[in-house]
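Chapter summary example.
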Amino acid sequence: VQLQASGGDLVQAGGSLRLSCAASGSIFSINTMGWYRQAPGQQRQLVARISTRGITGGTPNYADPVKGRFTISRDNAKNTVYLQMTNLKPEDTGVYYCNAGAVHGLKGYDYWGQGTQVTVSS
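The structure predicted for these 122 residues follows.
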């Protein structure tokens, strides 16, 4: 599985951005896709995650700090997951990594994109 992330930028507080993550390769093995954020000096943390199975993908998971501001969605026809970020805050600054959770046989794997920088200025 290969992941290509894009959409990061410099934006003022209160602004919006949309991140995209396109998956390729063994698409059929992917069960979930999501976004993680890594701020300087901090560990990578989950921002949002969505199932790629079924028609709607079920209820997405969001980290508490982004609930009500960020929306994760998917377009299975394009093998792409989006993260719409609104009302951005300086604390949203970091490198955003796309993640895919896949299963090959009976073993689970995590795949990562290259990361895209989001900087929110105050």
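To summarize the output: The chain has a mean pLDDT of 94.
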